[in-house]
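seq:
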Amino acid sequence: MATTDLNHVAKYATAASSVLLRAGAYFFLRWIPGSFFPRILLALFAAYIPSFLYNFTHTSPYEIVADEIDIVTREAPQPEEDVQSIDRRYARGEASRDVVQEVDVQETIVIEEKSPQILKTLLTGLPSPTSLFWSAVTFAINLALVAMVLDLVYRGTFFHQAHDLSMARTGYVSDNSAKILLREPDASKLPVFISYRHADPPMNTVHGARPHDTSWKSGGRIDWLDTSTDFTGTFELDGLRSDTRYQWVVSSNHTGYFVTAPRPGYTSNRVGTADEFTFVHSSCLKNNYPYSPFAHTLSNQGLRHFATAMRGIKAQFMLFLGDFIYIDVPKRHGTSVEDYRREYRQMYASPDWPAAAKELPWIHVYDDHEVENDWSGNTTGVFPAANDPYEHYHTSVNPPAVRAGESYFSFTQGPASFFMLDTRRYRSPNDATNGTDPLTGEPTKTLLGHQQLSDFIAWLKRPEPQGVRWKVVVSSIPFTKNWNVGSQDTWRGYLGERQLLLEAMWDVGLRGGVGVIILSGDRHEFAATAFPPPPDGKEEIVGLGPIGIGANPLNPRGALLQPDSKATLHTRRKRWPLSATVHEFSASPLNMFYAPIRTYFESSTSDEYTSDVCIKYIPDGNSKFGAISMRNPGTSDQGVLHYRLFVDGREAWSYTLTTPPDVSGGGRSKDAIWG
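struct:
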């Protein structure tokens, strides 16, 4: 009985560990590569092996199909001498004879060989009762899954550290300059020289225009690179023409192209992009995810989708909004500077990277996974190690910082002005609050820090040059509060400060002529959200009424004024036009998982109206990016913005906005002509 019970326990343990192992491995390899999965999966496999072997050695290949028992009785004969041997002196009459019977029990058992139970074996992981082959197959499936998990976790780290990576890419390009990042670890190739030339056709068909000089020009040299910068350096090309295509080449055998920006307030005059200014944005990159056992460990399907789609998009640059690396996914292998540098090298060493960047400048902000998940530790802990490669590989070729030594940036190109926020370095610690005083509505914590907040509001208030019709806010995390999972790490956890910024953005629309959009990433989904101003506006204090109790400045003896019962605050109701509505486009990932459950739901900070209006929500797709095209029609006072979303390389959705009307007036009166 005990043996039978043990067999049942072993059977259930084998099936349960196998099913959980397979489900967990699939989820880990295709959906969410959480750092806790490998430990759980290895524990399940450790439980599976002995239970599988026990079942394999204790499972009979036969089964009983019939069991019959036949009982036969018959009289057993007794010999005569048994009776005659009795002394006659003791016998009275006839000797008695007992009847003796024999019982013959016959059991007939019919057995036959069990079927191999192929389907059950393959689905549950149990050994086949009769087939060594199918038992081996089902065991091999689980072994292969564990091998894939270990491959995803360890192969890149130990076998593709990319120490020998030699690369160059284009960073920030203005209307008259460009930055080129170089990495060259081979000392025999130093010094490295850069040359550049016009890449447009030399003949210009415009009457009176001077033809381009397409001869190569020297752009400088880098004499030495070493481990202090992970063998990276920066070239700066100056004196370039605006709205012109250039080619550069470095002596370490790398080349690329870029188009300089149109001057502030203008759009392109180039064939194919005439009267437009286009750029793209996305975030979140992880090599070989979803996992494929047949792909190179540094391959990147999302970059391939992106490169294919970009053949039909003439973009000025890529705004990459963070999570360029995932230091802690699927497993953190260390916290040293070298651990962080390795992650950057592996991304740039991807065989799919060159096609995505050869003709497109990339500029960056960072998010949590460049440091640690949901990072809010400012510059403590692992931040210095994490910031080292971010500075060498990204900040060094980014737009100019707003303040020297800070990590937020601003620039103006064509019809748009950009402010690239740092949403990690200066924030208050994440907690369970929404960052708002429940009585006053004032912020109780900050996401931007005092100085960045002040600089950002100053940028919002700053008048823009003629022809600049858009202010573009770049945030690595979503501005909307509509995401409900893990949202305390986003602006949802800092609603007090968010409200201050929204009011400053609505003020931009109130002044007219310039619209505000927000670009974000992080959530591995796409959502377009509108933030309309409150219909009834906001009550503002503009002054004080009659003076109450206090010192009398006209009385040299300092006599006190008597309280005035009529003393009141002077207020006014500030009303923003509906045309001041701020729009956010949050697009990610460029290559990573997307959430298998829906986490975005329309919500509000007010009981009187919907503060966060859902325009479009598209969660599915492992690769997403947005393309923003801006136009300034010559016959209109309003700018036009056209947004296109691409999912897995194909256009999936589009939306069009116009700037608020540039007319005098206030409040809702402007809405009559908005459109």
